[in-house]
Amino acid sequence: MLSNQSRTAALQDLRQQHVPRGVSNAHPIFAARAQGARLWDIDGKEYVDFVGGIGVLNIGHNHPRVMQAVQDQLANFTHTCFQVVMYEPYIRLAERLNALAPGADPKKTIFLTTGAEAVENAIKIARASTQRPAVISFTHSFHGRTLLGMSLTGKASAYKQRFGPFAPEVYHAPYPYEYRGWSSERSLEALQELFQTGVTADQVAAVIIEPELGEGGFVVAPADFLRELRRITTEHGILLIADEIQSGFGRTGKFFAIEHSGVIPDMITVAKSLAGGFPLSGVIGRAEVMDAPAGGGLGGTYAGNPIACAAGPAVLDVFEQEQILSRSVALGACFRERFLTLQQEVPSIGDVRGLGMMIALELVRHPETKEPAPELVDCIIAEARAQGILLLKAGLYGNVLRILVPLVIEEELVDRVLDTLCAIIRATSDRQPS
Prior knowledge:
Number of strands: 15
Radius of gyration: 22 Å
Number of domains: 2
Pfam family, one: Aminotran_3
Structural class: alpha/beta
Family: Belongs to the class-III pyridoxal-phosphate-dependent aminotransferase family.
Enzyme class: transferase
Oligomer: single chain
Largest sheet: 7 strands, mixed
Catalytic activity: (S)-3-amino-2-methylpropanoate + 2-oxoglutarate = 2-methyl-3-oxopropanoate + L-glutamate; 4-aminobutanoate + 2-oxoglutarate = succinate semialdehyde + L-glutamate
Helix content: 25-40%
CATH topology of the largest domain: Aspartate Aminotransferase, domain 2
CATH class of the largest domain: Alpha Beta
EC number: 2.6.1.19, 2.6.1.22
Strand order of the largest sheet: 4-10-9-8-7-5-6
Shape: globular
């Protein structure tokens, strides 16, 4: 029998032989099991998971309530296709999400499988509702890897490569990114200019925005910007879509990040932590908007899989019973305080930002030039992994260290891991050439 170390090496060889290189891997390890905020690889090494499957595991790995709900559904049936034979978990989960979405108007929800599908369907619904073709998204954004998802995404490197031509009638406006010189005022001026130079407002079906960028580096859209964006879209009959695929489900301390601004969008796209690790996504929106497509216009064979739909209500139960939103706020305050203190010692930390427990550090070569330091982030991630912490980077330049730790992490573990992580950042930064 192969040793664990030999198994890892053998699997790495098989991965190289049988899986395309286009599927990148952040860490050269293979998972064996996971629980809560911890993960063990096939060598038996334990890690504290600060990635959470890229924000999928806000209530942690293998939460017992979710696992029980899934096992109960598994014993009944795994698939009928909702368009053929309906099932109660789909309806019950839609009912609960409609009640949670901001705004007093009646809501409706459709379930799908991936975040990209949620985005694509939101655009379909917006075009059907407004009878307009164009869509505006923002620079630095990420909205999926499908053709329309890539077209909407505001980052070319890696995601777009030579995959074009891309979907037509998609336009980009600058995201407000104060640290990089894009104030709310400047971004709004650019949007108005786009209406004059790129596409007239009366041709725009929807504006889609992440209230806090995910892959773009955890940049928060200021509340004043979102409120003015809502005013502009309403004035021109444009639908506003909040992409909450990474920022939703308590990650920012509110159930949806858009709630921090008081803005009520027309639609919200959700996925990731919706089903506690099971593939499920959705679009929640005003009923009159959601009903715009005629029968047969929405759906999918696996859309709203019954196993994943059974997990969804269990996730919501955990939020209520374990006070996950309060936990996100408290964790976010703790991490922010530690990182702001560390920033005073480490000049390479150019910015500390984020809402709730959607926190990030932007690393630079020099605080005045703000030149991105992606190599420093790579070194921190590698050293953290060696010391049992899994991290992930983000941002246009790959120089942002993002934190997506499960919100159920134990307090004792938080203190210990933060001590280790801060020491790693401090030591790694000290070794970098000035």
